[in-house]
Amino acid sequence: MFMLSPLFVALLATLSYASPAIVETRSGPPEQDNVCNPVGIDKTIRYFLQSTSIPTKVWQAEEVTADTFNFVDLQSKTTTTSGQALNNQLWSIQPINNGNSFAFISAGPTATVCAGGDGGLLDKVACDGVFNTSMVAQPAQFFISCTTCDAKGKGATNCQIQSAFEGQCALFFSERDNAILLDDCSSSQPNQFWDIVPEA
Q1: Distances from the Cα of 163 to the Cαs of 51, 87, 97, 140, in angstroms?
Q2: Number of other CB atoms surrounding residue 32 within 10 Å
Q3: Domain 29-198 carries which CATH code?
Q4: Residue 194 · residue 55 · CB < 8 Å
Q5: So where are the chain's domains?
């Protein structure tokens, strides 16, 4: 009679326990679940870009003149309902390339000036004509991936804002340090998520 050696039996048992058939698998990383892009966002209204982790903090254009601003940082959301302080915190959002990317246009200057992501601190890019042509230089283009997008196109929540030029995401490191800069994208970094909130 044919008999299996004890060593061969042990080897078979080891292989069966290591078989992929008994290993639990997942369909994909959780950060890819329930992601939307605000392709249909309302271009006729202005928005606050508000920290998801600290909702009292928003993007603000700094050193604003009629023609430009110099950089973007994180400031306490204003309670004023009109004027320059409010305008410096409001942004128009223009889809670029059929909504594959987006431009953020500051309401602070009279001229058309976009937020720029070309490494380090968020700064500015002149973007004349962006409203008419939906075209802008690549440093002024950002990808937006959100958990929820408003069905009527009036905002989105829990969004990562990624520079199309640098491939990094907009974040701040702490409430004390109000710089907004680009860094490696991470789904576990709470200060890298933003809500797009329409002006009241």
Answers
A1: 17, 23, 15, 8
A2: 10
A3: 2.80.10.50
A4: no
A5: 29-198
Instruction: Write the burial class of residue 12 (CB in 10 Å: 0-12 exposed, 13-18 middle, 19+ buried).
Output: exposed
pLDDT tens for each residue of 46-92: 999 999 999 999 999 999 999 999 999 999 999 999 999 999 999 99
Model confidence over 154-195: pLDDT tens digits?
Answer: 999 999 999 999 999 999 987 778 999 999 999 999 999 999
Torsion over CA of 72, 52, 75 and 48, rounded to 10 degrees? 70
C-alpha closest to that of 95 among 104, 86, 108, 82: 104
Q: Which two tokens stand for residue 17?
A: 């326990």
- For the entire predicted model, the pTM comes to 0.82
Residues 6+ apart with CB under 8 A from 73: 59, 60, 62, 121, 122, 178, 179, 180
